[in-house]
Design goal:
This protein is α/β, with parallel strands linked by helices. It is 50% helix and 16% strand. The protein contains 15 helices and 11 strands. It has a 6-stranded mixed beta sheet. Strands 2-1-3-4-5 form a 5-stranded parallel beta sheet, sandwiched between helices. α13 links the parallel β9 (292-296) and β10 (313-316). α2 packs across α3 and α9 (186-200) crosses α10 (218-234). It is elongated, with a radius of gyration of 26 Å. The termini are far apart.
Length: 357
């Protein structure tokens, strides 16, 4: 009997020794969390709920997971799946940003990130929230152009609670648990626009108008707030007559501007805080008006407009810098590394016809 038990024990031990050692991916699967979350628990990095830590540690114990000396090197070679949720439509700046993200994802610095680019309706809070939730369940991290809405914030919070970091790009969701925002200070951009309008539109009492994609877009609302702030403080002779919304679409923008011009006196200046500027130029041309026009971003749409004089000033940000910065931020969140904050600052630039690159 003893001999039989010994033989069975030897066979069992031999089978166990031949079994491959459990990996961190096995642990993540067993615990029902992302690989990034399991890695955070293993390396005792912050940002993971206690209940999640306990689940991961229980899975490690059940699988008899042991970190070996080469684990850090293996972790550095891990590929993290990242969902990039970008606006659906023809917004030229967003199309350029998509190209820059694809280019940045091929750089050696982003070799640990497998980027999945997805088009979503960023003007629909329920739809965007659903896409964030879906991506949070299938990916290690999420990059999203944000919509400042409670439903979207809740989806970001839920992803973060699962250990899936969300980085907002261009437009923020500041009340959420997003890991980081990458983009310009949009309130400052609006202040710059107001300063330009005040300096360039004359010293007599005049009216101005603002054109947004939508108030729900945090970047557009921040630009409006900054614009109003400087008008009130420094240019009281400029009266804000209207705030229009065009959904960043040229046709919808054209109709919104037409409605405004039909019922109001021609403004001295129009600040276009979003896209759809071809529609703005078309409406002004129909009414044979040439107010001061301040807009955003140098794109295939705005370049000919500023060259022709339909736009006077562009306030721009560098989409290439934003794309690279966003991927660095995601990589830092997933691997626990530090960012060089000076490198990540996205600057505001002012372009006129005379200094176009």
């Amino acid at each position: 009997m003893d001999g039989g038990d010994g033989a069975r024990r030897s066979t069992s031990e031999a089978e166990e020794s031949e079994r491959p050692a459990p990996t961190l991916s096995d642990v993540a699967r067993a615990a029902g969390v992302s690989l990034a979350t399991a890695d955070r628990v293993l390396n005792r990095r912050p940002g993971v709920r206690l209940a999640t830590v306990e689940k991961v540690e229980a899975a490690m114990a059940a699988l008899r997971f042991e970190r070996h000396p080469g684990a850090a090197a293996l972790a550095r070679r891990a590929r993290f799946r990242v969902a990039a949720l970008l606006p659906r439509g023809s917004n030229p700046f967003m199309l350029r940003l998509r190209d820059e993200l694809e280019r940045a994802s091929r750089r050696p610095a982003a070799r640990a990130l497998a980027l999945d680019l997805m088009e979503v309706d960023t003007f629909d809070p329920a739809g965007l929230a659903a896409e964030i939730e879906r991506a949070g369940g299938s990916h290690d991290a999420v990059l999203a152009v944000g919509l400042d809405h409670p439903t979207v914030a809740a989806a970001i919070d839920a992803a973060g609670a699962r250990g899936v970091p969300v980085v907002t790009l261009v437009s923020d969701v500041p009340g959420s648990a997003r890991a980081r925002y990458v983009g310009v200070d949009n309130r400052a951009a609006g202040r710059v626009a107001a300063a330009l309008a005040g300096r360039l539109s004359g010293s007599e009492p005049r009216s101005v108008a603002v054109l947004l994609g939508a108030r729900a877009l945090r970047d557009h609302r921040d630009r409006l707030d900054g614009f109003q702030e400087v008008l009130a403080a420094r240019y009281p002779l400029l009266r804000l007559d209207a705030v229009m919304e065009g959904q960043d679409d040229p046709d919808l923008t054209k109709e919104a501007v037409r409605r405004f011009l039909h019922r109001s006196a021609p403004p001295a200046a129009i600040y276009s805080a979003g896209a759809g500027n071809a529609g703005l130029a078309a409406a002004l041309s129909e009414y044979d008006l040439q107010p001061l026009v301040i807009a955003h971003e140098l794109t295939a749409e705005t370049r000919p407009l500023i060259e022709s004089g339909a736009i006077d000033v562009l306030i721009v940000q560098d989409p290439g810098h934003e794309a690279r910065s966003a991927l660095r931020a995601l990589s830092a969140e997933l691997t626990g590394t530090q960012l060089d904050e000076a490198q990540e600052r996205i600057r505001i630039e002012i372009l006129m016809k005379d200094n176009l690159p």
